[in-house]
Structure formats: C-alpha cells, structure tokens
Amino acid sequence: GAGVSQTPSNKVTEKGKYVELRCDPISGHTALYWYRQSLGQGPEFLIYFQGTGAADDSGLPNDRFFAVRPEGSVSTLKIQRTERGDSAVYLCASSLKPGTSGRGDEQYFGPGTRLTVT
Amino acid sequence: GQNIDQPTEMTATEGAIVQINCTYQTSGFNGLFWYQQHAGEAPTFLSYNVLDGLEEKGRFSSFLSRSKGYSYLLLKELQMKDSASYLCAVRGTDKLIFGTGTRLQVFP
Q: Chain A residues with CB inside 8 Å of B4's CB?
C-alpha cells in the first residue's frame, strides 16, 4: 500500500473495556506518531516512535494509554479501562527520520480510527 | 507554554482569494506546516516554511515571519473543493503542535 493504514476504522466499546488500535506506516518511514483529534479541534500529540523506541511519550494523557512498535514498523496504541472522555479520532502519521530531508520531513496521516466509548 | 492561534471559521466566494492567519508561541521552532483536512478525512500536507518569506505552490502560498511568530496561508482562485479545515502546525523538536484549525466554506 502507498499510504498509512489504520484499523479498525471505527470502534465502539463500553466504558471500562480494553481496546487496541493498529497503525501500518509507509514503508521506509522510521518515524511514527500517534495523535488524538476531538471534534472541532486540531490533532493533539500523544507519542512519537523513532524505530522501535518511544522517543517522546509526553502526550500520553495517563497510564491507561500505552503504545508499542516492536519491529519498527506496525504500531499498536492500547487503551485500558476506557472512559467516555477517550472518545475521539485517533490518527497515526509516519515520516522519514526528522532532519533527513530539507523539506521538513512532512508527516503523512492515516485515515484514523474513530473510537466511541459508551 | 505552547499556543497556536488561528480563526475558527472563514467564508469566501468561488474564484476569490482568501488568507488564513496563524500566530504561534512555542518553546522551540523547527518549521511551520499547513495541512488541509476535509470532514471525516485525514489531514494532508500543503506547505512547509522554516525560513522567513513566501513559499508558492500553485494556487497555494504560505508565508512565515519567525520574528513575529506569524504565518499565513493564501489560497487563490478558490474552488468549491477548497471547502475544508486548514490546520497550522509548528514543529518543536520532532512532534507537531497543531492549532484548532480554520474551517473555510467556499460559496458559489
């Protein structure tokens, strides 16, 4: 595939349940980002991976949120004990390693996963 | 602190020109991006500025003044398909910090 893909596209879950959201980045992109976007707002940074390691997880709101990228490609965002306030669109983006190109290493976004917690 | 401001909504007429402003205060600066986002879709890259001045790309241009913490996106010859949200984002070190976006509606 040419672009970033995310599954599922929609997820409805009950309060208190555990969910996993998957992101498949563009091949060759070592940097991977997770963002959360609420209605009428811009994307809010959650976590950034460079390769397999989380280089910056300062945006994760609390310890219910966790993300992994074990082989440096696919990433999974995991949310435990979901709350209604977690309802949002979760966007994944990938890019070349920052500083690689002179054009800003633009981030390419996936279509997002719309999470609804009832 | 980190703060990015842009107008919430704008309207314009097909064929016209519109300028969307963005002001920012961030703890670091490694470039400013503009993204377009249609309702229910992912943001798509429009432009990148890291040095002061104007970058032109077809009907879209973006301007940056680092000393003023200011950027604008200029859209010319507006088309109906330009109705979308336009997101201003600043890169500190690696992550992007986004504004709330400007929803542009183009009318015939």
A: 42
- B1 falls in which pLDDT band (50, 70, 90)? low
**Residues A112, B42: C-beta atoms closer than 8 Å:** yes
Q: Is A93 helix (H, G, I), strand (E, B) or coil?
A: strand
* Residue from the list B41, B48, B97 with its beta carbon closest to the beta carbon of A45: B97
∠ at Cα A88 (A84, A89), nearest 5°?
155
Q: Report the pLDDT averaged over residues A99-118.
A: 84
- Whether residue B69 contacts residue B24, with contact meaning beta carbons closer than 8 Å, is answered with yes
Q: Tell whether the model's pLDDT for residue A20 goes beyond 90.
A: yes
β-pair partners for A92: A34
CA-based nearest residue to A41, from B4, B74, B50, B13: B4
